[in-house]
Amino acid sequence: MKNRIWFITGISSGLGQALAQEAISKGDFVIGTFRNKDQADLFTQAHHANAVGLVLDLNDHVAIDLTVKQIEDKYNRVDVLVNNAGFGFAGAVEEASMEEVRAVFETNFFGCLKLTQAFLPLFRKQKHGHIIQISSHGGFKAFAGFGIYNASKFALEGFSEALAQEIAPFGIKLTLVEPGPFRTNFAGSSFRMAEKSIADYHATAGAFRERMQFVNGKQEGDPTKAAHAIFYISKQEKPPLRLPLGKIALVSLNTKIELVQKDITDFQELATQAVYE
Q: Domains, the chain, ranges and CATH?
């Protein structure tokens, strides 16, 4: 489909910004969200007829419904939805307060879920669409010190994997993008850490916290190349359910698969005994 319409959340920087630029450069139209009105206005002015910036807080579910309705009324369709907005959080599971956990889930899970739900009636009506969920290699494999973030992305992957099966009969596609470390602001000013610190976790979760302080700007991933890859799969008739991005992401996914397979193999006989004869 030529001149597709994209809706991309969180395009002020990083992967969201790179993907918006990629889609625009290829002749598509981008509706992108910001949390800052000045940034949204500058984006609209810079791209004139090729894009528009909107202010949207994913924690405001009423605003999500209103925004999607306005978009449908004005543009009549959206071809690609990209749930990109989110943030990282480090800390041992015991260190995280319930307030911190809820804040992570509100954006990374509930905001994404609500926006996806809001667009589904339009996608069903138009009988096409591609939902691209920006997850993480940490949405497939967990890491000590990253458990709360992992949980939010595991939850995203759980509903998205089921949703992909539910919407396939309507001609709607879904892809989970699972980047490894990318040179974005993810590990910078947008990254959060648990306020509480427990000395007993220094060698595990604490080591992860320290590592995150030094990786910003040194990650292997190139956001522009990631945007190329995502745009490529958005044009495929049969895009993948999962798209890992980066060498580290491939290692993470393969390591998890090998660990799961080992547990299945080692305890297969025990598992088969837990049934009625």
A: 5-272 (3.40.50.720)
